TrEMBL record:
SUPFAM superfamilies per record: S-adenosyl-L-methionine-dependent methyltransferases (SSF53335)
Gene Ontology terms: biological process: methylation
Xref: Pfam families: Methyltransf_23 (PF13489)
Species annotation: Candidatus Chloroploca mongolica
The keyword Methyltransferase is assigned to this record: yes
Protein name (database record): Methyltransferase domain-containing protein
Recorded GO MF terms: methyltransferase activity
This protein's UniProt keywords: Methyltransferase, Transferase
CDD domains: AdoMet_MTases
Amino acid sequence: MNPFIRVNAGSIDWLARWREMYDAERAQGEAATDPAFRRQSDCWTGRAERFAATSRRIEQPDAFMQLLAPRLQPTDRVLDVGAGTGRYVPFLAQHVAKVIAVEPSPAMRTELELTLDREQVTNVQVCPENWPLREPIQAEVVLSAHVVYGVREIGPFLTALDAAATRLCVLFLGLKHPTAVLAPFWERVHGEPRLPLPAALETLAACHQLGLPANLELVPAGRPFRFAGIEEALEELQVRLRLGPDPQWEATLRQAIADLLVMTPEGALAPRHAPSHAAVIWWTPTSR
């Protein structure tokens, strides 16, 4: 039995508020979608390779892994929910007995498999499913990095993480959705502020409403978006802004890129204003 008291911070139903934010953001995106926008059944089709390349530019361990690594044990099984292209998988695999990488996107899994081959990682099981899994499995440590923003029903997602972990649940996410740094592009193109998705503070409130004894720690944030050059930025922004191929939109975006992106010391392009901190939310599973 979970002895932790359920708390509705501010007497707000945070699970309902989460759905409201999610639905409003999605509705705004649909309303703004260019009729010529190329939709994909897997939203990462044509983009996963670029995402993987961006992830490889980030040296590991980053601030999140530096915080997590001391809590890992050599005999651990780690469940990485929404492993993506495997940003953290090779590092985790060096420190634990086994990593189970849950990733539903075929495009992301292709890049994940390439990452495992390139790094010669052999103690990783790839699970091609959505979360929660059809057949629950357990691990000492369950983590999920930058995934919750795209989840409409956050209650079942979080309680499944809690049920799967035997020692530690941990989330890594922004104080705002990472694409918040691209909001100036949205406003430049669509003429209105971009509505926000739930992020760290909403997640913390949802955890406590569910009776999950969550803690929040701040860590330094890296730049959420880095582009190798103008063409890469243009391709990604066209997708993020839901634009079809159009010379007028392209001209507008090229000017916005010139105005709103800056060159990093590594020679990449990144948004001018980046967050200073990200959040790590962690708790001891309620079954403990």
